Amino acid sequence: MLTITGSRQSYCDGIGRRSFLKVGAMGAAGMALPEILRHRAEAGSTKPASPRGVIIVCLTGGPSHLDMYDMKPDAPEECRGQFKPIQTNVPGLDICEHMPLQAKIADKLALVRNMSWTLNDHKLHELYTGFAGDVKAPFLSPPVRPAFGSVVSKIRSGTKHLLPQYVSMGPSDFYHIPASDTPLYLGSAHAPFEPKGQGLANMELKAGMTRDRLDERRGLLGSFDQMRRELDARGQMESVDQYTAKALDMMTSPAVRDAFDIEKEAPKVRELYGPDVKFKWEYQAGHTWHASRFLMARRLVEAGVPVVTLAEGGWDDHGKVNNASPQGTLFERMKEKLPVYDRSIYALISDIHQRGLQNDIAVLVWGEFGRTPRVNFAGGRDHWTRAGFSLFAGGGFHTGQVIGKTDERGQVPVNKAYTPQNVFASLYNVLGIDPDNETYSHPSGRPMHLLDDTNRITELG
């Protein structure tokens, strides 16, 4: 929770002169919102914000491409798994039988089957930054580059929109994410806002604090600060007041509060997304599916947030291999996960199209790698960086197509492979950011290019 700090003097009602200005966590814990706003203005350009936005759905743990989007029914039994493919409304695009809703809207999807990654563990750096870093670095070590959303926030510094430029829906209890989803040297001003728990609750006015009373205190606050300005030879108080005022505006803005409130949606829309679901098979993390986050993500991007990330599911399905993985085979767990996952993707993409936002909101769905072609002794599949999928929708992309392919056992891409850098190059393009020319500054002062490989996934358009 962030508090606009100041004098500890209290009024007769017991409310401190500034203590009522608690507005929620907008970055690193403990930093005041005016300070964040000030840092952003000091850091940034004055480029106008683009109305377009990106929703990144991270299937943390590594989803099995062979049991979802790249099935091999003619492969040997030890490779093909237990599920059967079904036809979609796009010829040549078959997907798992447990995802019938997506089969109905495959014309609105672009499936990339020739992905590859570098890291063979759950650091998740490539998912959030596009950069693998040192493969020999200790587990949960920080990435070498800031998160994609933090970079976008940095580039968009100085925009006048009250909403944050980067929102993370939280890790779904998958503990690896905070180590990857970080602004690093870009600073706390560009950390993701997490709209959950107390942080979101603190955006509301406190009990007994009406808008009229808040306005009275705003005026009184101005009077005190005017006196302090007269004593401040350096003139710094005036800028502090500007950021305090913006923080107040953010907290009291109906548009900001409404964007985070899915109860504002019609019951028909909330029903489309469905309820949050707790799975029978509890395994490490991600055993609750938060369908509500998909709806909030759409609301936030529609309201003007450029980047929203959410992580769901817990897809590290090795099977019953040890005490860390004591419940359910891959196929038992995926029978639970795939139907709710299917509904969430169907709802999000359908909702975006129904609102006419398919050219404005891009959706990416992926994990940190695929799964081994051979089913292991415990009824699961292990980490496999050499092949996997990414799923795109909206963003003005060319959809209704399959991009790339793997060999007959799903082991490696045929001809060429795309990497996370190519994925992020495509997303930067959606946001109107040119990774060939845009840079940001390293603490050393040298300019940093956004990506090493700026080639987009050409088939997406």
Properties at a glance:
single chain; 461 residues; Alkaline Phosphatase, subunit A; 2 domains; two-stranded antiparallel ribbon; 13 helices; 15 strands; disordered N terminus
Structure write-up:
With 461 residues, the protein is α/β, with parallel strands linked by helices. It has two domains: 94 residues, no CATH class; 342 residues, 3-Layer(aba) Sandwich (Alkaline Phosphatase, subunit A), CATH 3.40.720. It has 13 helices and 15 strands. The strands form five sheets. Strands 5-8-1-9-12-4-13 form a seven-stranded mixed β-sheet, sandwiched between helices. A hairpin with a 6-residue loop joins strand 2 and strand 3. Helix 11 runs parallel beside helix 12. The protein starts with 32 loop residues before the first helix and ends in a 12-residue tail after the last strand. The N terminus is likely disordered.
Tell me the structural class: alpha/beta
Total tally of structural domains: 2
Q: Please identify the top-level CATH class of the largest domain.
A: Alpha Beta
The radius of gyration is: 23 Å
Biggest sheet: strands side by side, in what order? 5-8-1-9-12-4-13
The unreliable regions are 1-33, 44-50, 231-243
Assign a percent range to the helix content. Answer: 25-40%
Terminus-to-terminus distance: 42 Å
CATH homologous superfamily label of the largest domain: Alkaline Phosphatase, subunit A
CATH A-level architecture of the largest domain: 3-Layer(aba) Sandwich
Q: Profile the largest sheet.
A: 7 strands, mixed
Beta content: 5-15%
Helix run count: 13
The CATH topology of the largest domain is given as Alkaline Phosphatase, subunit A
Average per-residue pLDDT, rounded, comes to: 81
Beta strand count: 15
Element order: H for helix, E for strand = HEHEEHEHHEHHHHHEEHEHEEEEEHEE
